[in-house]
Each structure stands twice: as C-alpha cells, then as structure tokens.
Amino acid sequence: MEAPKLNLIRKELQELPKEVLAEYCLRLAKYKTENKELLNFLLFFNERADDYVEDVKKLLDEDFKKLPYSDYTCTKVLRKTIRIMNKHIKFMGNKVFELDLGIHFCQLFLNTGISHTSHKPLIGLLYRQLKRIYKLIPKLDEDLQFDYQQEFDALITEVKTQRNYFSMQDIQ
Questions:
Q1: Residues 21-44: what's their mean pLDDT?
Q2: Cα–Cα distance for residue pair 135/59, rounded to 1 Å
Q3: I need a surface site. Which of 2, 59, 87, 112 has the fewest CB within 10 A?
Q4: Longest Cα separation, the chain
Q5: How far apart (Å, rounded) are the C-alpha atoms in residues 98 and 56?
Q6: What residue ranges do the domains of the chain occupy?
Q7: Alpha helices, H only, the chain
Q8: How far apart are CA 66 and CA 76, in angstroms?
Q9: Residue range 79-137, pLDDT digits in tens
Q10: What CA–CA distances, in Å, run from 39 to 17, 48, 52, 73, 136?
Q11: Which 3 state secondary structure label does DSSP give 113?
Q12: Distances (CA, A) of 80 to 85, 89, 125, 130
C-alpha cells in the first residue's frame, strides 16, 4: 500500500470536523515519540520559539557535562546529541535557530577541551558542524549575516588556537 500525496491528505483533513481531527492527532502522538514531541512543540512552543531554543541549549549543556573521558564513547554520545539537536531543528524549521544551536554546540565542544584530541571521528563532528554553519550564513538576510559571520569568525579563531593543523579548507 502506497502512501498518498500530501496534497490529498491536506484536502481530507480540511474536510474533517475538529473533534475527529483532534482524535487523529492524539492517535498519531500515541504511537511515535517524535510525533508527540512535534505536537508538543506546535502546541506549546510555536509562539515562543526563543524559549524552546533556550531549552534545547540547556539539553546540550547537560549532555556536554556528562561526556565520558574515552574518545570512542565521547564520539558516540556527541553523535546522539547531534541527532537530538537536529530533531529539534527540524521541529523549528528556522535557519536562525539552526545557526544559534550550531554555534552553541561548537562553543561547548571547544570549551570542554575535547578539541585537543587526535581522534578523527571526534574532530569530524566539530568540522561538520562548522561546515553546516558556514553554508547557512549566506542564506540569511544581510543584517543577520553580518552578526553571525562575526560569531563564526570568533569560532574559527578559537578552533585555530586549539587545533594547529586546522585550515578553512577542512570545512569548505
């Protein structure tokens, strides 16, 4: 059985009464945690996205405080953290918030001191986030581009001081 097109689903949903629509939403939320989290965001945080970003930043802070000492397990924990961060970015659907969270992640990464390691997968996580930020900045309005470019340049300067062999070609 093939899934119908989104346009067809939209038309059918518009014809349903509110009670039935609410029941369908609850059924969706019951079966998958991600659906429940998205519904939570849409109902309670959609108008207060700044508060939601702060909550996600607190989650990132907690994850970085609990990082293990082993490079291998640290990489696994950070991959999970990035997966969770990406899920919340997908909920918000806003490039500015994506940049905020990406920059916050990179700052936490650099402040923990794990950037001094020679473990390539761990450093690759940082470089991928920097590359993501680098590609997002040109997609913003010009006034926001200037502000975020300054933050990005400060991040790059910090990376260069901690990683002697870093060059901009690593993230382009």
A1: 87
A2: 25
A3: 2
A4: 62
A5: 11
A6: 47-170
A7: 6-15, 18-31, 33-40, 49-65, 71-92, 95-112, 120-136, 142-162
A8: 12
A9: 999 999 999 999 998 999 999 999 999 999 999 988 788 889 999 999 999 999 999 99
A10: 19, 14, 13, 32, 26
A11: coil
A12: 9, 14, 11, 17
Which among 85, 91, 84, 115 has a CA at the least distance from the CA of 103?
A: 85
CA 20 to chain centre: 33
Phi, psi of 149 (to 5 degrees): -65, -35
Assign 144 to helix, strand or coil: helix
Does the CA dihedral 61-63-69-75 come out positive or negative? Answer: negative
> Between the CA of residue 103 and those of 59, 134, 137, 146, what are the distances in Å?
15, 10, 11, 15
pLDDT in tens, 43-92: 888 889 889 999 999 999 999 999 998 999 999 999 999 999 999 999 99
Cα(122)–Cα(75) distance, integer angstroms: 5
**Dihedral sign of CA atoms 83, 84, 85, 86 in order:** positive
Q: Rounded distance, CA 139 to CA 141, Å?
A: 7
> Tokens standing for 2?
């093939």
